[in-house]
Amino acid sequence: MGFGDLKSATGLRVLNDFLADKSYIEGYVPSQADIAVFEAVGVPPPADLFHALRWYNHIKSYEKQKASLPGVKKALGKYGPADVEDTTGAATDSKDDDDIDLFGSDDEEESEEAKKLREERLAQYESKKSKKPAVVAKSSILLDVKPWDDETDMAKLEECVRSIQADGLVWGSSKLVPVGYGIKKLQIQCVVEDDKVGTDMLEERITAFEDYVQSMDVAAFNKI
Q1: Which of 99, 155, 188, 218 is the S-S candidate for 174 at Cβ 3.0 to 4.6 Å?
Q2: Closest Cα partner for 112 from 141, 82, 92, 96?
Q3: Measured on CA atoms in the order 55, 4, 21, 220, is the torsion positive or negative?
Q4: Which PANTHER family would you find in this protein's record (predicted)?
Q5: pLDDT tens, position by position, 29-74
Q6: How far apart are CA 221 and CA 114, in angstroms?
Q7: pTM to 2 decimals?
């Protein structure tokens, strides 16, 4: 198992392919597995790695809660596709006595051999993935849109939200939910294509209606 070197373009491509039909590294909710891989990646993946970038931005939103996420961090090599060799921190396999170099081993050469083997395994994985038909990854998102006060025109607020149009975005049902002191929030469902629409974009576009919208939160996020 493993993604290879997540600081390299090859490792990030493996991560991107792995997340093509998954929301999280393990299971159906964010966990310590996501935090371990997120920290190993370190910086946002390139824009053309849609699935990895969508996952990275989503896990980044849990930064303040990461210590409370479920699960226990494991070695990085315990995560990822099963058919890619874990090379994270791996030591070179020991050789049989017949293979011992009596004049001393060359660590540099061994490192190059391990690197070459890793690249060959990753290339095989990439080749297998490329033969699979492309799947359009979609997610169902439930948004909470909060007004400034009880005098905000909620019909107009919803009209503004639904006026946001984008390729890969479909608005669904909605309802008003009381939050206290006579104030109600708009709870609205949408379906998005993951490589075209993200929660960051939705938040930016929705909160731009600042006369009506105080804030937006993601109440639920599920892969379809």
Answers
A1: 188
A2: 92
A3: negative
A4: EF-HAND AND COILED-COIL DOMAIN-CONTAINING FAMILY MEMBER, ELONGATION FACTOR 1-BETA
A5: 999 999 999 999 999 999 999 999 999 999 999 988 888 899 888 8
A6: 40
A7: 0.43
Residue at 186: amino acid letter:
L
* DSSP letter (8 states) at residue 93: P
Separation of alpha carbons 187 and 82, rounded Å: 39
**pLDDT for position 157:** 97
Q: How far is CA 51 from the centre of its chain?
A: 6
Tokens of 172: 């669904």
How many residues would you count in the chain? 224
Q: CA 20 → CA 52, 54, 97, 133, 168, distances in Å? A: 8, 10, 44, 12, 16
* CA dist list (Å): 171 to 55, 141, 207: 22, 10, 17
Domain limits, CATH 3.30.70.60, in the chain: 138-223
CATH match of 138-223 with 3.30.70.60: yes
Residue position matching structure tokens 């990030």:
12
Helices (H), 8-98: 9-18, 32-41, 50-60
| Mean pLDDT (the chain, rounded) | 85
Q: Band of the pLDDT at 140, cuts 50, 70, 90?
A: very high
Return the higher-pLDDT residue of 82 and 103.
82
How many helices and strands in the chain, by DSSP H and E? 6, 4
Nearest by Cα to 164 from 136, 185, 195, 192: 192
pLDDT band at 206 (very low <50, low <70, confident <90, very high): very high
